[in-house]
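User: I'm writing a tutorial on reading structure tokens. Could you give me a worked example: one chain, its sequence, then its tokens, then a sentence or two explaining what the tokens reveal?
Assistant: Sure. Here is the example chain.
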Amino acid sequence: MAFDGVTIANVVSELKKELLGGRLYKIAQPEEDELLLTIKHPEGQKRLLISAEASLPFLYLTHSNKPSPMTAPNFCMLLRKHLQNGRILRISQPGLERIVEMEIEHLDEMGDLCRKILIVEIMGKHSNIIFCNEDHIIIDSIKRVSAAVSSVREVLPGKPYFIAPTQDKCDAFSTDPQRFRAILSSSPQPVFKAIYGNFTGISPILAQELCYEAGIDGERPTAALTGSDYDHLYRMFDQMITSVREERFTPNIAYTNGDPAEFCALPLTLYGYGKTVSHASPMDASALCGDHIVSYDSISELLENYYAEKNTLTRIRQKSSELRRIVATALERNVKKFDLQQRQIKDTEKREKYRIYGELLNTYGYHMQPGAKSLEALNYYINETVNIPLDPDLTAAENAKKYFEKYGKLKRTHEALSELTREVKEEIEHLESIQTALDIALYEEDLAQIKEELIESGYIRKKAGTKKQKTTSKPFHYISSDGFHMYVGKNNYQNDELTFKFATGNDWWFHAKQIPGSHVIVKTDGAQELPDRTFEEAARLAAYYSKGRDQEKVEIDYVQKKHVKKPNGGKPGFVVYYTNFSMAIDSNISDITLTESQ
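And here are its predicted structure tokens:
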């Protein structure tokens, strides 16, 4: 996440276009460290959301409203007293600092015009919203910082406001080629670290982008750079600064495996993704999974969507953490049990040897001398001589009986363990399939179905009087390039539903070979033949929604649904089939259209 000085510059550029001249109509503080400003502007009403939360500070325009507490906090009341109906005169950013200053003109209690400054600092755990008079004397802040908290700068009423030192970083706007080279050459570290560590407003991801555009490995030490390398690097650096100075921004988000990885106010080419779509085309943007870039016309819209998606993923991971813990604990226990049973089965492999010893003693026992400790006999099964250990206190018949008893005991143990091992292996496969379903889950409704499966499987105790809730979670619905409908189960219940209730006999069924994953159904509308491209796209879906999605190639089995059977007593999602086709394919599904879940 790169909420750096360049992103702030993009935000300021947008705010100047949207808010200058507008009046503060409403001031609210929906969260402890958050402000929501409603601005009346000649072009319509605008909302500015500002957060100084340590873990997730941000600043962007939004169309959404947020409920406020019944009693406004003191800082909110102070802003209302001074700034209500005030007019926004200026919005600026000092250098490439992660700071936004808003100068607001308002009438004081005597009816005279005066000016105040609202300063937003987006600096991680040091983020703050500071309210100053026109002389930059602090009136108050959303987070007060005393000398006991910071020895560098106090943020308290009556104290002068100043920008905290930025670790002796240089101003990117006033850098020339000679100074640029001198700064980097005096920093013995990887090039990209030297760039973001020495210039204000440059994030690690942007520094990596500059190196990539210059054709230089960002991990390369600065000492290894040639004069030509410095020239290329500065040229890219200067182009970036010129784009910022001229307010030529291209906000975009890079998605990896369908999840938002990074955003930037300038192009992100280092990911090398060939697929770029505009967010202005919602159908195209929402249909993409895998690796791709989504471009935006508005940095505020980008930030709102990025944080919304990140929050959704974070919330789902948090809500699924208990389910993951339960599954991981059960899986670990079953794997240990399976390993122990495998060792015990290995110990029973000698049973056949005991049976043969018994048979040979019955055949050749008359050669045995009284008190003998062993007997050499011809094993007529393999035509080799074997040495049979004996109990000298027993006769040949008694020794034979003893070996047959050992054989019988080990045989019974082997049969029992074979059944137990089969059951435990099925349980391991079942738990691994639930783990894969947890990785696929996107919404709370998806987790509800998985939890229900864990309850029915006995891994979670059902609370007395709790009724089974009707879930709204539905399978993924894709459209192939040739127009065929493809459905992907998100969990074992949906897999069973798709395969045995939704699909008809001639529909095609796809699944990753011998690894946990989703059932994929392709509707054929009767006897219609599928094009090769649809087979490949369905196979990619089966690969992507499986435990093997990170492999270069995944082997996929596919067969018509009528050949897929549910064994009696089989666990949810478990099927058998005996005739099938197979293909090895990658898990890239970025070109397959995703519709709303059906």
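What the tokens reveal: The radius of gyration is 35 Å. The mean pLDDT is 88.
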